[in-house]
Amino acid sequence: MSEPNVKEVVREKYGQAALRVTSGENSCCGNRASAKEACCDPITSNLYDGAQKDEIPDTALQASLGCGNPTALAELKAGEIVLDLGSGGGIDVLLSARRVGPTGKAYGLDMTDEMLALADENKRKSGLTNLEFVKGEIENIPLPDDSVDVIISNCVINLSGNKDRVFAEAFRVLRPGGRFAVSDIVIKGEVPAQIRKSMELWVGCVAGALSEEDYSNKLSKAGFDSIDIEPTRVYDIEEARNFLRGHEVDVDMAAPQVQGKFRGAFIRATKPKAE
Q1: Terminal alpha carbon distance of the chain
Q2: How confident is the model at residue 253 (pLDDT cuts 50, 70, 90)?
Q3: Is residue 126 part of a domain?
Q4: What is the pTM of this model?
Q5: CB 163 within 8 A of CB 210
Q6: All residues at 6 or more sequence positions from 45 whose CB lies less than 8 Å from its CB, including other chains
Q7: Which of 42, 76, 189, 214 has the fewest other C-beta atoms within 10 Å?
Q8: How many domains does the chain have?
Q9: Residue range(s) defining the domain that contains residue 182
Q10: Residue 119 falls within a domain, yes or no?
Q11: Residue 145 falls within a domain, yes or no?
């Protein structure tokens, strides 16, 4: 799928998810009494603890479509400037804004008008003022060079059709010594093409996840060092059994070829300090 088509599919999917939340439904599961109930999607469920859920509007949690919890792992400090790539309904921006405090700031970047509208409403509900949502694409970040301390993202980079450009832009806007700290889906080992394509409908939606080696190599090519990929969850084939049946995949055949290879991971890297 070409990059423009990837973007349009992503834009439509996430726009629809935002509208479902706005109309009182969950982004992935339809009507529910509360976002604090478990989501039916095993990728996006149970990522935030009770204390974090209490810090944010319910509609921010309902709109969450991530695969991890980067704000819990990024070790944000008071006074830092944070940028969330593909911020959606704003959950990780709101949590980041609380962690960096009034002397810091959190930016959320998203290309979907409906998600940006929802994020701005969640900002209003939160009462926080040290955050800003910006319209744009993660391949062309509308911020100056050397302007942020930390870049976070939650299962969005795997949706891009031009990941090299994403990593180059992330490197550009980070200050020397700045940190790249994202949650994403990675692949460990070889997966047959047909099965990989069907699995990506589940874990990556459209553009597809990188192997751990490719992810690391692309970050290095962009200029990052101190690269570390830490698995946070290994997805079990049983979690996707019903979904895969709907996509004409023989799950019993797929299981031994896929088991343990699709992983949620926390990826860290650093922009070298100026000499």
Answers
A1: 41
A2: confident
A3: yes
A4: 0.79
A5: yes
A6: 38, 39
A7: 189
A8: 1
A9: 3-270
A10: yes
A11: yes
- The residue type of 190 is E
CATH number at residue 164: 3.40.50.150
In a domain, residue 275? The reply is no
For the ranges 61-65, 109-113, 185-189, 232-236, the lowest mean pLDDT is seen at 61-65
Asked if residue 63 lies in contact with residue 91, where contact means CB atoms within 8 angstroms, the answer is yes
Average pLDDT across the chain, whole number: 77
| Of the candidates 20, 24, 64, the residue with the CA atom closest to the CA atom of residue 41 | 64
- Looking at 23-158, list the stretches that DSSP marks H as alpha helix, in order from N- to C-terminal side: 50-54, 58-62, 70-73, 91-100, 113-126
Tens digit of pLDDT for each residue in 13-66?
665 665 565 566 554 443 333 333 333 344 444 454 445 545 544 544 454 455
Alpha carbons within 13 A on the beta-carbon side of 151: 30
Torsions phi, psi for 218 (to 5 deg): -70, -40
Residue 126: pLDDT above 80?
A: yes
Task: Copy the structure tokens of residue 145.
Answer: 């060079």
Q: What is the pLDDT of residue 243?
A: 52
- Checking DSSP bridges between strand 105-110 and strand 81-85, what pairing results, if any? parallel
d(CA 266, CA 2): 27
